[in-house]
Amino acid sequence: MTNLPSEPEFEQAYHELASTIENSSLFEKNPEYKKALKVASIPERVIQFRVTWEDDKGEVQVNRGYRVQFNSALGPYKGGLRFHPTVNLSVLKFLGFEQIFKNALTGLQMGGGKGGADFDPKGKSDNEIRKFCSAFMRELSRHIGADTDVPAGDIGVSPREIGWMFGTYRTTVNKWEGVLTGKGGSWGGSLIRPEATGYGLVYYVDHMIKYASGGKESFEGKKVAISGSGNVAQYAALKVIELGGTVVSLSDSKGAIISEEGSSITPELVNEIAAMKVERKSLSELANTSSHKVTYKEGVRPWKEVKVDVALPCATQNEVSGEEAEALASSGAKFVAEGSNMGCTKEAIEVFEKTRKEKKNEGVWYGPGKAANAGGVAVSGLEMAQNSSRIKWTSEEVDEKLKGIMENCFNNCLETAKEYVTPAEGELPSLVAGANIAGFSKVAAAMKDQGDWW
Fold it and tell me: Single GO molecular-function term (predicted)?
């Protein structure tokens, strides 16, 4: 890759997967998979285009739009659209690469992809955002379809933006099909899709807690730190509270709210924050207006601020550093799982894996995002199935399917880790190794069967 420009986010994701596989017995048992890794690390297709749109002053603006169609061996490309000024090819390749194996772990027929634009919705009027969405989709519509590529929302792309893009797609191609997921409930969306990533994360961690404790413990009585304050963080917090846990933090890009001693984040506060997010307000405004017993701390993340049993990073990539991982481990945290994609740095993962090996059950057990946060794309896959069948399942039916998918995902990671990275006596299996190997093996086998590599 030396002839390519530096792509730090993608390179981090690639090396994290490759190093895990190389330190397992997978290549020893299947030496031909080395070639599969080389092939799978290059996208099948990268689409880059300009998006021109008119602001409220009548002036033409231009942004860069992208779609990375990474791998379709298991099904149509599937992955979100991100509208954020930091969007570039490195970020989207990292997200698309992770998405391949995350989607494989759901057990559903979905390939991996990612897309978006360097458009910043902040400071834009609703009319300007609508115009951008329409202009973006007019170009993207050439490259997607229900059996080709099915995008979803991501940062900066809520159900509102999905609606505007779906309307443009429908009128542009003169076809109603399940080409986007995260749609409105009255026109093809699945129930509990907004909740799915957060719920799925908590279901996955619940299996971690039960396995580690021999079935004696659950979220009941556990103290939980959560970062972020978007959909994933909100619904993870609500599910933790429902299962008897205590949530002590939420955050945004400017700082964190920490519950005061003896108190906790309540469902009422989560709902208040959800309303603030719709209006694009900062959590700092809670410092003066909230009647809840919380303290706002500017410029910090939760990991050094509280002593907890469980940490759930749900904001963005690389939000837990090696130093913060050390702080979590030394303060007694037992479980860390990512609601965000690649939420932990390489150094943080090394800290967690080291404590898992050295301290056995007293160390930190880490659940990687490609497994732990797969609930969102799993329900997107269920939305695709409902659209194809022209039916709609109840929220109870979808939730039961989500629970089953997350349980199967956890067991797959667990058993694969035991097989290819045999844990020492008293040591919990490496879920990061299990997730990487299980996801990669499934994709590699499909690619081989279809003649993508030999």
Answer: nucleotide binding
User: Is the CB of residue 203 less than 8 Å from the CB of residue 337?
Assistant: no
Task: Look up residue 371 and give its two tokens.
Answer: 């497994």
Among 81, 90, 77, 10, which Cα is nearest to 44's? 77
- Whether residue 197 is annotated as binding a ligand: the answer is yes
Q: For residue 1, what pLDDT band results from cuts at 50, 70 and 90?
A: very low
As for how many domains the chain has, the answer is 2
Answer whether 99's CB lies under 8 Å from 79's CB: yes
Name the nearest CA neighbour of 190 among 374, 382, 377, 401. Answer: 382
| 360 marked as part of a ligand binding site | no
Helices 8-22 and 431-449: crossing angle in degrees, nearest 10, is: 90
| AA letter at 48 | Q
List the structure tokens of 147: 């059996």
Confidence check: pLDDT of 287 > 80: no
Q: How far apart are CA 190 and CA 173, in angstroms?
A: 23
DSSP 342: T
Residues 298 and 157 in one domain: no
Helix, coil or strand: residue 175: coil
Percent of the chain with pLDDT over 70: 98
Segment 383-399 shows an average pLDDT of: 97
Determine which one of 114, 131, 222, 442 is catalytic: 114
> Tokens in use for 285?
């405004």
The answer to the question of residue 310 being in a domain is yes
Has 78 been labeled as part of a binding site? yes
Query: Residue type for 374, please?
Result: A
Alpha carbons 193 and 184: distance in angstroms, whole number = 10
> 168 and 245: one domain?
no
Within a domain: residue 389?
A: no
Residue 99 known to bind ligand:
yes
CB 163 within 8 A of CB 276: no
For the stretch 178-223, pLDDT in tens is 999 999 999 999 999 999 999 999 999 999 999 999 999 999 999 9
pLDDT tens track for 77-126: 999 999 999 999 999 999 999 999 999 999 999 999 999 999 999 999 99
The encoded tokens of residue 429 equal 């299996």
Residue 376 falls within a domain, yes or no?
Answer: no
Q: Which of 322, 352, 367 is the last residue of a domain?
A: 367
Domain-located, residue 208: yes
Q: 220 and 131, same structural domain? A: no
The CATH number for 146's domain is 3.40.50.10860
Whole-model pTM: value is 0.94
Domain that holds residue 111: 43-177
